[in-house]
Design goal:
heterotrimer; A alpha/beta; B mainly alpha; C mainly alpha; B: mainly alpha; 2 strands; 1% strand; globular; C: mainly alpha; 11 helices; 77% helix
Amino acid sequence: MPDPVVHVAELTKIYKVPEREAGLRAAAKALFKRQTRDVRAVEAISFDIGPGEIVGFLGPNGAGKTTTLKMLAGLLYPTSGEARVLGHIPSKREREYLRRMTMVMGNRNQLQWDIPALDSFELNRAIYRLQRDDYLAMRDELVELLDVGDLVRKPVRNLSLGERMKVEIVGALLHRPQVLFLDEPTIGLDVTMQKRIRTFIDEYNRRHGATVLLTSHYMADVEALCKRVIVIHHGRILFDGALAALADEFAAYKTIGVVLENGGAPLDAYGEVVLNEGDRVSIRVPKAETSRVAARLLAEHEVLDLTIEEPPIEDVIESVFAQPAAQ
Amino acid sequence: MSVDVARLPEAGRWRSLYDFYVTTMRTAIASQLQYRVTNYFYMLGMIAEPVVYLVVWTTIAKDQGGAVNGITTGEFAAYYIVWTLVRNMNIVFGAPFWEERIREGRLAGDLLKPMYILHYDLAYFAGWKFVVVVLWLPIAFGLSAVFHPTLSPTPLEIVVFIFAIWGAYLVRSMFQGTIGMLNFWTTRGAAVFDLYIATEMLLSGRLVPLQLMPGWVQTLANFLPFKWTFGFPIESLVGNLSTRDLLLGLCAQALWIGIGLVLFKVAWSSAIKRFVSVGN
Amino acid sequence: MSSLRVGWLFLRMGVINELQYRVNFFVQLLQSLIQVGTALVMLELVYSHTNALNGWTQPELLSLIGVQVLLGGFIHTFIQPNMQQLMQDVQQGTLDYALTKPEDAQLLISVRMVRIWQVVEIVSGVILLFVGLAGVENSIGVGDAIAFGIALLIGGVLVYCFWLVMTTGAFWVVRMENVLELFEGIYQTGRWPVTVYPGWLRYSVTFLVPIGFAVTVPAEALTSRLQWPTLVFALGFGCAAFAFTRWFWHFGLRHYSGASA
């Protein structure tokens, strides 16, 4: 196995949050002795990501996803543990490292607001010390891939949210980074635009062999792009593996769909009936009992068709996040 | 599937830095030109300050038979009109801008890039100056028509003045930037910034020409950075400084730029440590 | 009378909100001290070179500065925060929230915010005023005091009108941030009696930007300079300014609704 591009071991981030009681006396006391409370945003997480992998980082708001990404991008200093990206320690913020990675935050704008994106690109060329030929080749490639030829000539503030995200991405990739940290890159975008961005990330990954770590609230993004997901909740990793295996591990239920010869027979005894359309019935049953229930159905009814389905990924995720913090 | 993982070669360091400054300055000019109205508001608000001082001292000078401490009404007019240009050059990326940069989350974006933070601010505001000076010209003409300044600079004085206003820009950038770092620790630094500005008012020649101050204040001012951001550039053009004083003044500016840079670097490195450990 | 109650409720809410940030009191105190200190140094410098500025002695001018600081405190406490909020609302389109309330919109946008710690500035203005008056030779009669009260009230109204007219401009010119700098700059002209300014400037700061007017007239009342006709004129001017502002506000509002529909 090749060396991992991202190596994270026992990475921990604890924020100290000032805390004080109301009232003037408490306020005065706080001037001398600050009361703080520890908030454990990320707790001893470990994972490796290999070259060219696209990994989805899943978790509810406040799970520690952004904190982790920021530590990997060198914006936050870890409290303890180890993070290495491309052999660099991110918190040192070495130039060599910054030149090889990028971070895109869906709700932040890094381009100059009042001027065409093209001018901001020029600025990035100088900042990243790119040679003109490389810069032009990369810029034209990205502009074509995202189809933003007209947009880059307009002032950024005149672009719609989706258009802005596209040129934002061009700006963030001009230096052809090998590692991409994408924090909610599709947030607030409509479905078509989400799909567009998704296809692009996939294409960039294939062309340049870049490693991508991506967070998103939209399961469609994750399903389309990521073979592997890491689920983080309350600062801890709950699952790290293939997306398909996630359902196996966490889904408590499966759905048995049957089409009956003698439609309308009551099937409540087999499980929770979630759909009943004449002869088509769907029953939700605990995972462990799936095969037993299916066998019973086949034995006791005239079954024309029987399917066993995993629950939708959204439901699986929801059941994962419903777990309490303490384990 | 063709995969290229090789990193891109680097262009030359100085060449890139030069490109960066030129591009940023062009950017600043382009975006500030779009906001002529708001730039003019700013400028009109700003010239009220020297006009008030000028009117007050002109009134006094007239009462006293034409001069105060040897400064004539025409010289007051010259002082405060040049003042407006120097003041424009003196607008730097200071404390309020730092506050905004942190609050609006733009700092994180800047930190992701391999460029020392000071370059962004120096370059952008330097570009802005060109817009400001163009907008300033009609104001200068207007003020001159009303207040009749006496101004007869020598070529040397003009050359020194051109260097001195950029020197003032750099000195003030360093010191204001350093003060701006306070924003990393508190959101209520306003009183400290006000204190800095008040000290500057009195010891820089911003409020009144230093000649009108008591002797000990003038001596004190020589050893502090403030004078080199206001009084010196103005007097290099309107005063009768000797060649020696003109050159010494430029040296003093260079010295304060150096001291300011060291202070800025120290403040920034501890500010960034603070930023990456609290993060927001 | 319901509008008065609304105003009162908003005021109370603003005060309660601000009381949470007590540190601001000390920050404000320090800022006021610095501001007053700078003004005093300037005053001292001026009078070290002359005995009277345009007929105003040092204590008289000190009371004028007192009025300017006092009125400035009033502006910073009640007017400016509301106007800045309004500007922001127009920019971000959040003014809709205020406009959809069943109450006079001008009233609502004028009383939403209050920065109560800026009251420190009002207090320091009053102190300067009294210190100045103590040094003034002729005594102040009841008539002068009443005239002062009326003149100060008119001054407040004029400044409010000016601010609202400027801010209403945001309906057309969306980027107005620097209006604050513009106003703060021009407000500094109020620190000196309007009569020192050359003709064109005197008329500007009297009628166009009624800062000089708002500060000088009350100070004149206290230093027995005020003629009754001036006060009557000021009263008429204040009413006219208010009527115009109200009309202009409604005019601007139509523009806003038109733009967002």
